[in-house]
Amino acid sequence: MDAFDFLLNLDEDRILAAIRQAERRTSGEIRVFVSDAKVADPVAAAEREFVRLGMTATRDRNGVLIFVAPRSRNFAIVGDEGVHARCGQRFWDQVSAAMRREFHSELMTDAIILGIARSAELLARHFPRSPDDVNELPDVIARGR
Fold first, then answer.
1. Fewest beta carbons less than 10 Å away: which of 33, 72, 80, 138?
2. pLDDT of residue 42
3. Alpha-carbon distances of 43 from 20, 24, 40, 74, rounded to whole Å
4. How far are the Cα atoms of 3, 13, 59, 63, 113 from residue 17, in angstroms, in the given order?
5. Burial of 25 (0-12, 13-18, 19+ CB in 10 A)
6. Which helix (H) or strand (E) holds 116?
7. What is the pLDDT of residues 51-84, one digit of tens each?
8. CB count, 10 Å around CB of 8?
9. DSSP state of 111
10. Measuring CA to CA, which residue among 102, 123, 103, 139 is closest to residue 28?
């Protein structure tokens, strides 16, 4: 499946609503990126996009990126250093396994929303929303190579 077909099958409104709902509970920032390239190493590609999208610039280093590469049928979910320090690799492995089950069932939107929801639970626990919180990153589904 190419990125265009993948995006056509996504319910972007549901995904953006899930991001907004998640970010109402936390100062953390969650973004989704869909690559139109074939990606051999989705974690490395996700880490590069994380930096390119400016996600390392959050005040508490608490951003999470869900990176999907439909042409190569893979994905990754990565968090900034503040998030990773609190959850460790095991958390990301568990979220990825749950998302993978949804992707294999062809439930693309549900897979991404599951990743958002699980990330939000962790972020809300370790980075609760404060009264002075601002949305530091745009709530959009980013696309590119």
1. 138
2. 96
3. 24, 27, 9, 10
4. 21, 6, 23, 17, 9
5. middle
6. helix 108-126
7. 999 999 999 999 999 999 998 989 999 999 999 8
8. 10
9. H
10. 123
Look up the pTM and report it: 0.92
CA distance 100 to 75: 9
DSSP string, 16-57: HHHHHHHHTSBS-EEEEEEE-S--S-HHHHHHHHHHHTTGGG
Phi-psi region of 64 (alpha: psi -120 to 50; beta: other; left: phi over 0): beta
Q: What is the DSSP letter of 71?
A: G
Helix (H, G, I), strand (E, B) or coil at 112: helix
Strand pairing of 63-69 and 141-144?
unpaired
| Side chain identity, residue 88 | G
Q: Dig out the tokens for 138 from the structure.
A: 């745009």
- The closest alpha carbon to 43, from 5, 89, 104, 110, belongs to 89
